[in-house]
Inverse folding.
């Protein structure tokens, strides 16, 4: 996995930029959650903060990728980091009331959506085609690992500073990331459409709808997340109500997926190339869904932790499979728009899962919610597999178009 980092200075710069900014994001999220909880004392305020960060960007997914397809990707990524850093500095200095904070978080999250689409689109220009699986795995391992330790680092920082201080650290990571990204080569757009932003956004969505394999994978991804995203909500109730665990035990369960992600990315960096990416995606859907199903049947905290590690393995498969497949098959002039549309839809699916899954949790219990999520995800996986077979996909993906 690390060979691709040593072999490509440009990819190493992208990896370092993503790792440092993801660490900052995880620090900032902890600080904002604690600030909102302390200043409002309302659970709904915390929920609104999470929706502003996760759900709102999905509403702009069709437009997020237009920026990357119109302008030099290096400039897009550097600009996005500078905007996010400036917004975070403003949050730290002002500590605004909830209404203003939600708007600032939403704007920053939409900017992050533009960055994500551009960074995923840039990968084929930074590494060879045969390195894409390893590069995506290395990027996932670095970001997931630092995201997992972020809350621990935040806890240590709170011993020496406050919310303002941590937000300023978060802002600094964006400026460091921008500096690293400035070392990338220029990645100009392959063609200028001359169309309006709305027309370009429509064309990106239209490409997905016209292309059978991508449409099927996108719908399957959406359905899998819509069923399984509720595990973030239900985990604490499973740990404390059904498994009679402590606060510490509940926090430990949330680490299970992160551990699985890191292990999964390390394995996939070595072996993912032996599978076609649609097969890896289906395996990811199935393993992540089955992980939730059996977590609902767990008899002890340690068993639930182990099963969530397995779920993390599946999520790593989805991440590497989807990103590598799209980087290979989507024409470069549409790549950012496809990524923007797809991951925007996934954000909407996660928000839907929080709401509908939360209602199910309220009416039943955590075990029923986990089992329902897992069964629904497995049904979605089977339907996706059948649809892919009917679409007549090729056994191997076509080579990447640079």
């Amino acid at each position: 996995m690390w060979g691709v980092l040593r072999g490509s200075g440009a990819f190493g710069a992208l990896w370092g930029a993503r790792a440092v900014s993801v660490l900052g994001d995880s620090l900032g999220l902890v600080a904002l959650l604690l600030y909102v909880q302390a200043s409002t004392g309302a659970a709904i305020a915390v929920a609104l903060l999470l929706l502003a960060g996760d759900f709102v960007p999905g509403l702009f997914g069709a437009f997020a990728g237009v920026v990357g397809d119109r302008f030099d990707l290096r400039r897009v990524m550097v600009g996005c980091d500078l905007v996010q850093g400036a917004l975070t500095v403003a949050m730290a200095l002002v500590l605004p009331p909830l209404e203003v904070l939600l708007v600032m978080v939403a704007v920053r999250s939409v900017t992050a959506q533009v960055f994500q689409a551009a960074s995923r689109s840039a990968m084929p220009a930074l590494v060879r085609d045969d390195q894409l699986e390893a590069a995506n795995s290395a990027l996932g391992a670095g970001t997931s690992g630092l995201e997992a330790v972020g809350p621990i680092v935040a806890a240590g920082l709170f011993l020496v500073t406050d919310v303002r201080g941590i937000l300023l650290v978060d802002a600094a990571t964006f400026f460091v990331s921008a500096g690293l990204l400035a070392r990338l080569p220029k990645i100009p757009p392959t063609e200028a459409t001359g169309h309006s932003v709305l027309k370009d956004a429509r064309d990106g969505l239209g490409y997905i709808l016209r292309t059978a394999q991508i449409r099927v994978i996108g719908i399957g991804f959406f359905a899998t997340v819509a069923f399984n995203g509720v595990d973030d909500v239900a985990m604490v109730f499973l740990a404390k109500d059904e498994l009679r665990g402590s606060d510490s035990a509940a926090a430990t369960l949330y680490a299970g997926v992160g551990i699985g992600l890191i292990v999964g990315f390390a394995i996939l960096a070595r072996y993912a190339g032996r599978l076609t990416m649609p097969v890896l995606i289906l395996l990811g859907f199935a393993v992540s869904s089955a992980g939730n199903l059996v977590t609902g049947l767990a008899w002890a905290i340690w068993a639930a932790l182990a099963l969530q590690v397995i779920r993390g393995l599946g999520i790593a498969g989805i991440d590497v499979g989807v990103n590598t497949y799209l980087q290979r098959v989507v024409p470069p002039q549409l790549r950012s728009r496809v990524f923007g549309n797809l991951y925007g839809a996934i954000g909407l699916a996660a928000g839907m899962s929080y709401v509908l899954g939360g209602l199910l949790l309220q009416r039943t219990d955590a075990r029923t919610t986990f089992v329902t999520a897992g069964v629904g995800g497995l049904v979605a996986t089977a339907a996706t597999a059948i649809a892919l077979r009917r679409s007549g996909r090729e056994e191997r993906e076509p080579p990447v178009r640079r």
User: Anything to note?
Assistant: Residues 9-40 form the longest helix (32 residues).
